Amino acid sequence: MIDTHSHIYSDDFDADRHEVIQRAQEVGVKHIILPNCDSGTLPQMLALEAAYPGYCHATIGLHPTSVKENYQEELALIKSELERREYLAIGEIGIDLYWDKTLLAEQTIVFKQQIEWALEYNLPVIIHVRDSFRESMNALLPYKDKGLTGVFHSFTGTLEEAQEILAFGGFKLGINGIVTFKNSGLAAVVEKIELKHLLLETDSPYLTPAPHRGKRNESSYVSLVCSKLASIYNLSEQEIDEVTTKNALEVFTKLLY
Q1: Which has the closest alpha carbon to 208: 197, 194, 192, 219?
Q2: Residue stretches of the chain with pLDDT short of 70
Q3: Count of Cβ atoms closer than 10 Å to residue 243 Cβ
Q4: Which residue in 11, 78, 80, 178 is a FRET match for 46, CA 20 to 30 A apart?
Q5: Which of 251, 175, 255, 239 has its CA nearest to residue 207?
Q6: What whole-number distance in Å separates Cα of residue 255 and Cα of residue 118?
Q7: Quick check: 58 and 46 in contact, CB under 8 A?
């Protein structure tokens, strides 16, 4: 299994980070992808990647909720990082209108700039969409058929939205603990989507799957997402593991190097 989205570099794991990674390894997690948020999270993320080379993999990006008045400074840092070293992907990027709608214009500028860099550096993108599906798709439209690839992280949309994303081309859908929530309705949507379009993720420390909901999430719990998908598709967990791992390697091609 590959946890394609985990913030285990965050302060929530300072007391037991090594044990968290050990538990992930014990359940069969072969790689953990670390999406960046902003300049504040960069040092912790890079330190974790350095501590577990070939296992934890850093990406670089400016999260939409981190887009403030100083967004140009943050973008300049991302550009310098892209020039400094190789990253697995550009992310976590996108548009989030759940908390604040006043910075939509700035979020869109930042989103598009990072897409441009993804194309320039031939990197996939990790896209965050919250209360912003139409705005996000509108921002992506100029890049259709340009070779952009990536994942719509934490997909919770309708079947029609899933079909629109997949018709755009180049994207997979990240499925996490939300699929185990009884009232989310996500399982009913997922069962109508071919497994070849899905990636496993946790979004640790958030969105903890049942039966641990309400507690801190961690990368080992990606196995619970795998188990839920096995029940949805009537396949074995090993089959889910194999297909979703293949899917992840199609997006995050640098994991093969």
Answers
A1: 219
A2: 257
A3: 17
A4: 178
A5: 175
A6: 17
A7: yes
Residue 140: closest CA among 78, 95, 77 = 95
- For the chain, the domains span 2-256
Closest to 150 in 3D by CA, of 92, 193, 99: 92
Tallying the residues shown for the chain, one arrives at: 257
244 closest CA partner among 254, 86, 228: 228
Task: Answer whether 131's CB lies under 8 Å from 98's CB.
Answer: yes
β-strands 125-130, 90-96 pairing: parallel
- Which residues are 37's β-sheet partners? none
The angle that helices 71-84 and 104-120 make with each other, rounded to 10 degrees, is: 10
Q: Which fold has domain 2-256?
A: TIM Barrel (3.20.20)
pLDDT for 256 equals 83
CA 110 to chain centre: 17
Q: What share of the chain is helix, strand, coil (3-state, %, to 5)?
A: 50, 15, 35
Peptide bond into 135 cis (omega under 30): no
The residues near 26 (Cβ < 8 Å, ≥ 6 apart) are 220
Contact 170, 149 (CB under 8 A): yes
Q: How far is CA 201 from CA 209, 214, 229, in A?
A: 11, 17, 12
The number of beta carbons lying within 10 Å of the beta carbon of residue 172 is 24
